[in-house]
Amino acid sequence: MSVQPLHPQHHEHGSELSETELRVRALETILTEKGYVDPAALDRLIETYETKVGPRNGARVVARAWSNPEYRDWLRQDPTAAIAAIGFAGRQSEHMLAVENTPKIHNMVVCTLCSCYPWAVLGLPPVWYKSAPYRSRAVVDPRGVLREFGLKLPEETEIRVWDSTAEVRYLVVPMRPAGTEGWSEERLAALVTRDSMIGTGLPKSPAEAA
Amino acid sequence: MNGAHDMGGVHGFGPVEPEPNEPVFHAEWERRAFAITVAMGATGEWNIDMSRFARENRAPADYLAKSYYELWLAGLEALLAECRLVSAEELAAGRAGGSPRPVKRVLAADDVDQVLSRGTVAAREPTTPARFKPGDRVRARNMHPSGHTRLPRYVRGHVGAIERVHGCHVFPDSNAARAGENPQWLYAVRFEGRELWGAESDPKLKVSVDAWEPYLEPA
Q1: How close, in Å, is residue A182 to chain B by CA atoms?
Q2: Which of A50, A149, A156, B39 has the most CB atoms within 10 Å of its CB?
Q3: Tally of structural domains, chain B
């Protein structure tokens, strides 16, 4: 069997996994006994990232940028403040930069060295974003990677890859889909997918969202 | 360090496999490993750069064989040992022994929201003017420190242009070594695909990395 580097173990089988499971359990017990962690805080952390923080946050930022030119300017000038103004700030989003797609430029975000990702607006990163295949290829063959996401861009489209090597976190602002004139922010937000804000996808069209 | 974590441009890992309707965690132990790591980070016993180094600082085969949260777990165990908070004996026994050394802070459930929404700001007030400005041509240094660094190998020795001045940020190379924050100017540096990958590269590719001033020299 080949090694699946940095892939999740989806199924709970084999001795290796149970060993990991036991180690985590033992460590949590020790840390709790020592008073270093509060189990209620652990539950709260998990609950936050499972139920409260996720790509719906980023979708609201993008929808507002699409529908409000003043907000879009603010997002260009001071992205961290503009995003915080909608209520999304903090851990792994302390220094934000919004990069806008245009008919000529497509932006795509990666962290080749680990898994840097704008948690406050997108939640925790998906497994593929943290995986060796994405991290290795996004910077050298982004078009090939995009094809694996079912996205084929015109050859003349410039691809701008942002490797998140510092504490700056990148949010892609995709292009607003055609046929959405006059839509409310809420309706627009429903078109904004997680992948479109990483740059590995496009927003849904009105037909796809219907 | 020139470790397996530095993956940009490496071949052989196969296709990217997105998982439809992916859950946030794939097993209960991932939830717990995530939470204890974040909670222990809040004690202030170490910083984010030390955390990253603790995950990447291992033999390539070990790094590549571990799943993402297994790396988090291994990194956490290494930091706990280094900081003398949890001993190997305790880990093996699965329970605390002796009287614990107090930590600076314990994350309480009621403080979680505030701690997360505040985050940890890396920007610092500059004490010197920035050496480079947007448009300047710079070369990423050909450097190979054995400690933590955030300059990926695939840009080292290559020439790019300053695209943006982010400000002055904590310098990971020294912060990871407990040698102080040593804040440095941070830039987005843009490289042409052909400069990085040669004549066969996609002519319409541009790659930017965020690079601290000590990583760069005028070109």
Answers
A1: 30
A2: B39
A3: 2
Query: In this structure, what are the phi and psi dihedrals at residue A49, rounded to the nearest 5 degrees?
Result: -85, -15
Reported ipTM: 0.97
The answer as to whether B19 is a domain residue is: no
CATH of the domain at B74: 1.10.472.20
Distances in Å between the alpha carbon of A105 and those of A99, A199, B60, B202? Answer: 10, 11, 36, 14
Contact status, residue B86 vs residue B130, Cβ threshold 8 Å: no
pLDDT digits (tens, 9 = 90+) for B17-30: 999 999 999 999 99
Range of the domain at B80: 28-118
Spatial CB neighbours of B6, under 8 Å, sequence gap ≥ 6? A112, A113, B56, B152, B153
Q: What is the pLDDT of residue B7?
A: 98
**Mean pLDDT for the stretch of residues B20-49:** 97
Distance from CA of A11 to the nearest CA of B (A): 8
Judge whether A195 and A149 are in contact, CB under 8 Å. Answer: yes
pTM, 2 dp: 0.95
Q: Enumerate residues 158 to 217 of chain B having a beta carbon within 8 A of any beta carbon in chain A.
A: 164, 166-167, 169-170, 172, 186, 188, 196-197, 201-202, 204-212
Q: Which residues pair with B188 in a beta bridge?
A: B164, B210
Query: Residue B203: closest CA among chain A residues belongs to which residue?
Result: A158
For residue A12, what are its two tokens? 């709970």
In a domain, residue B211? The reply is yes
Q: Domains along chain A?
A: 14-50 (no CATH), 54-209 (3.90.330.10)
